[in-house]
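INFO batch 0412 | record 1 of 1 | parsing
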Amino acid sequence: MTRLGLGGQRRFAAVGLAVAVLASSLVVWSIRHIPLDQGVGPVTNAKVGGGPGPELSRNGRLAYWREDPAGGALLYAQNLDGSLRRPVVRVESIRRVSRTRWTTDGSALTYIEGGTRAVVLRLDGTSNDLVLPQAEAFGGRRIVDQRWSPDSSKVAFTVKREADGRHDVWLAQARGAELVRATTLDDAIADDWISPNELLVQSANGLLGVLGDGVLAGGPANAIRPITGAASASPIVGEDGRLYYVAGRTVPGPSDAAPTVYAAGALWSSFVDGSDARKVRDLPNELLKIDAHLTTNTLLVHRNEQTGQTVNLGSTFYDIPGNAGLVERVAVAPDRRSAIGFVPRRVVRIDLTRPASASVSVLLDGVIDADAWYPRTATLSRPAPAEATRLPDARFAFNLAGSTWTMGRDGVPALLRTPGMQASFFRRLPTPLPLWSPRGDRLLTTEVTNTTTGAFGALLVDPRTGAAKRLEAFGPVGRNLAWSPDGASVAAVAIPGPGVAQLPDTLEVRFATVDDTIARAAVPGREVAWTGGGLFVISNGTFVAEPRSRTGLAVERVDGTTLRPVVTMATLMADPRALATATAATPAISDLGASADGAYVSVRLTYAIALGEAPRSFLTITRTDTGRPALYIPQETTADVQWSPRRALIGYTTVGPVAAGTRTVTATVLDPATGQIVSRVEGSRFAGWAPDAAAFYVARESGLFHHAIGAATGVKVSPIGVPVSLAPARP
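INFO prediction complete | emitting tokens
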């Protein structure tokens, strides 16, 4: 590889290119080779000389590669109008070059070579390489994207492990040497920087957050602050300085393209700390990625089912003409009236003055891996200091994007434990909340132990450090766990075999101490609930092959080694409030819960209206002293069911029918003794009980709110609106 300083010139006799000599002498390159295995190739750390040449335009620049007839390829830089065109560097194999980019301030050109290093070529004639550590390169990791900080002093890389396609973010100083790993999520993608020390990150699991650069100074990895609790992606700074993103459903982009996340849902905006979150408008029900926020009502987007660029105007998509080829990436001009588009082997100009009928013209043909630079004009707005609000003293634990987080009364989340090998499982499995011990000194959760079989293990986690201990006494377990009232032991449903429970399996509930020894004899059961008022299980019943179901299920109270039925599935089905008919088929009960005093148990009753028809479900509540069903929650869909830690009150979320393209959600608190609703919060999920049981929390896209029972309004705790588990009150 031969390099020419951006200000220096070089004669290439093989292609007959005459370049005016503006530097004092011809630059001679000194190249140092460091061998790497597995075909990674040499690391080049050349000292660049030469003086500055004519300054390229401060309004816009282009860079691109052209194949050299004599072999290899040349990188050129020029103004947008084609003036001051100059060669920058020559490589022997263009196939080893990718992600050619201008730095944010336009002071240098960079590209990825062989997937293991970033080559930095500056206007002042200096250069250096930023190198992936050899051990990581040998292990199959490759750099697949780069993002430069506003002052071009740092760069964030997305690094992919080729064996399984998992991504993480690595950082480097612009004049450094090796990259430093900044996340260990196995599901993190670097996006744009929002300050010299912070960049946006996103994940296929829906995490949208801000990552600090402290790891470059020896700080810990995963210094991420989430922006929202909703599954979100595709962040962009709008012309008003607010952060725009799509909240809804998220999926990873194509594996052979630049790493990104697509989302379907609604357009939201907020400040970068997540405050003042507002729903801007619904978007068409398609997976997309925002490339630019052009006007209040106009977005430049990519749609997941195609590789070309599209304008979203209101609720309508307009595809940019493909007469010059499908536009894969754009650089939008500061006035947002035009853009430079990149087509395979072509650079085009896009006129955006009439988004519904955008026109395309060819600027350059026969070029490779091009990029355009415009001066950065978007300014991120920061919120004014908020007025001090008296918030209850509380400690929270919750799941977000497959990881476990904690949070204090300040409402600032901290990453406690990353998902590791289970990252992909959280995209398709519901994640139960981590459970605080009665003393508040441990968290109980599950973690994937085998990605082949999908087996889970029970895990005790230190809420201060994230250190974890697996309870091996259980073996593989289901997702239903419970603490003993004294916090000395744990109950879990053991799985017979290395995978997940199957309907024909006969299951048992096992008990282990926090020191991982057997606490008491196992009892048969498919689910468990343990409160100060008693230990309850759902029995196994009998498996029936046709139709595939289990009959004879019941909720049972465990007294020593004796199991006494509390209520049977047959009793629940026979009650007129179940609305069951003679054609009802395949009934089941699940989601066992119990009040703190043991006076009530709750289960979800599900059955098909007729064999092969859609299921119907009810949340049922039964008195344990009489075994008679007390309440049937009439809504078809309930979720987030939690009993109060001190009183016989139950909280849950009701999910209503689809109206105007969206579902309504309501957080409800109900007194089963009277059947009366004591609190209802529209547009919110029930998120958890306060330790004193005098208040509860609700989650919205705009944040987490504390509500006193019966209060009309709540107090915002955090912008992270998710269901939470609260530690018991300190003595």
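INFO post-check: The helical segments are 134-138, 569-574.
INFO record closed
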